[in-house]
Amino acid sequence: MEQKRIIMDETAMQRAVARISYEILERNKGASRLCVIGIHSRGAALGRRIADKLSELERIPVKYGAIDITPYRDDASADSGCDRTSIDFDVKDMKVVLVDDVLFTGRTARAAIDGIIKRGRPVSIQLAVLIDRGHRELPIRPDYIGKNLPTSRSEVVAVSVKEFDGNDFVAICSE
User: Which pTM does this prediction carry?
Assistant: First the structure.
């Protein structure tokens, strides 16, 4: 994969996380009954950052978990042998903010929603994404967006996060 251009640097990503966090608090009138669930892998790292920012702003702990969508995918065998989901709280009656790095077809978000609902019935599930690149195959719409990034189907949006990659940036790459 050849890197084309950097779309967001570390500072822009920090601003996007902060903006999304403020929007979440505004829409939900605070952090009461709010939890954040990130989609493995990079969505989980971004979700942790959002949960930490919400906790900092509201001065109350915001529950955080991470979901592995592998068992809920519709395009591959669900038998991976390893489920990395770590949600140690009940989602029943919670307002769940689901976090992913890139929203593309909507299939990952759909799988994550299935996984959350299997654990209980939340009051609502809201979707926060760092990048919305379009090309939806399912009727999924994000509630919070760091950046809208129209792309062609042949382009790849690569999100790097310090937790996995050593640095923070978003780039468009050609296949």
Answer: 0.94
